[in-house]
# Entry
Amino acid sequence: RMTTPTFAMARALRCNSALRPTLANHAWRRQRRRHKLGGLFHCSATSLSTEDSPSPLPPGDTTASATSSAASSASGSSSKWISSPPPPLISDATPAWTDELWASPAERTRQIFCNRSLNMHGVKAVGFDMDYTLAQYIPETFEQLAYNLTLEKLVTVFGYPPKVADLKFDPHYMVRGLTVDKRRGNVLKMDRHKYVKIAQHGLRTLSRDERKALYDGVEQRESFDGKDFAQIDTLFSLAEAYLFMQLVEMRDGERMQQKQQRQQQRQEEEEEEGGENNKHLPEGSSPNDYSHLYRDVRAAVDLCHRDGSLKMAVAEEPSKYIYEDPSLLSLFRMLRDSGRQVFICTNSLWDYTNVVMNFLLYGRVGSDKTLDWLSEFDVVIVGSGKPAFFQSAPRPMFEVDVATGLLANTDDGSPVAQIGLDEPLPALDEYNMRADEGSEASTSSSAGPGEPSAVYQGGHFKHLNRMLNVRSGSQILYVGDHIYGDILRSKKQLGWRTMLIVPELAAEIACWEKNNEIPSELHRLRDLRDSMSDELHRVEFTLKTLEEQAANGSGAEDVSAIGSMDDLEANDETVEDLRVRAWQLRDARDAIRAEHKSRLRVYHESFHPVWGQLLKTGYQNSRMAHQISRFACLYTSHVANMRYYSPERSYRSREDYLPHEGGN
# Structure
């Protein structure tokens, strides 16, 4: 009675390896059990590790074993997030869409993916953000610079203890798509339903029970959108989020130290020792409130931008912080040759924009800078103040004198004469010339082919529409990296077509392709676990019914008393048989569950050792993936990937499926 294969397998988890092949190939006594369990769960000697951990495979099947090894190998060298350098230049291996060899790019890391169908034939203008869209920053240097400057401000301006300056930065620890719980000192990764799947307090990962007690076991769930929360939805936020986590860790360490000191009655002795290094981090409004730390970090970062220390360092040596990308020139010219207008709309001011674009397109720095790059665009808007730029409230627009950086007034975006100037500004001169020629474009301030574009600061979308002479938001495709500042507002409020740049996508795809056999094995284990659970529930229901009847004196101990349980084919089993069988199934199911959980964790850690896949949480899309699918018509790893596609292309999204339709 105690030698059925399921029980043998459960026992095999604790027996020596010599018995495993015999146990694994033991035949089932019942035909029904052979159908239900026999083909699904066996113990394979080749798939069990030296630690005797179970691997539920059919005899002789080593696929999952190899897959698990691959996952473990990948985990050992977890793919670090890497900023996306420029794509390779056009060649036979990576042809442009105009080449005879052209086809959709075979390399997935360079493809453009479509969420909402987009026919480029209806697009009259293509616009670009600059930072982390056209210009890709090198995280190991740029984020390190931002981190160091923020530490300096915290110590010198905000009065933090000198030991804060000794903190070290890991440019690969943080990822986008996370949420900062400022009050509790946690950083969260959520699925598309806003359920927290990973939570870190400081640099410590919270256990499942801790996480659920904070965010699930409450009377009213958090919205994660109020003043106590901040979204890490731009690459500029990674350094400050990591620093906040370190300060939370330091604050907790100080509290523990202070508690021990009070217990040991050493407060007076410590006060006598004094010294700067005995200073502590500032306290919040309550002992468990960390929001003041985030507020100070955020203020220090803003100060780095306002005093120019961050951008001046980049301007002095752009090659240290930015990838040069001359391939963008061919992209801009391809779009303009197709009859489309091209514009820049960036939050950076003119002086910094000029530095970045000179280096990005031509490798020019310092006194070698020119204004040649302006001839590649029809309109350039700096200091746009996105996302306010996309709102209907009017905001003043100024023309920028590119020689001096001075601002001149405009009449709702149209250039006006400046009293006291010997010569009109370039935009006014061009505007008057077109008016004299009776051109239809006299209402537009955009440049013609080969002409340098005028540069404006501020304003809002209506100014831009007049400059481009567009009447509908759907005639503009805007390309940016910030899901909120670039994509969400322009899509929801204006109806612009959008393309999101996801630099992390290239490394994500490369890791996925390296381990592409693992997901199918994980699905197999999950299906096996569910099948075991279904049968266990039926056996437990039958057993409970029999026991209740026996207790009431209305039935016998024989299962045949339950006429509705024919599908179990157990009409000759006793209650004792069912108890043993339930134990066997439960033990086997738990072994499969543990194996599945372990392999899933290893798989996700192969993408990132802390946060896993960027766009997944387990089997669910992450919150970031949900936002991309909702608001980005297109998304890709690098803006220059557009070179591989015709500017007249009609992008098609995949068909949507609901679970009942059986789609993948």
Observations:
- The first strand starts at residue 113 and ends at 114.
- Residues 1-79, 438-443, 560-571 have pLDDT under 50 and may be disordered.
- The chain has 20 helices and 20 strands.
- The two ends are 43 Å apart (CA to CA).
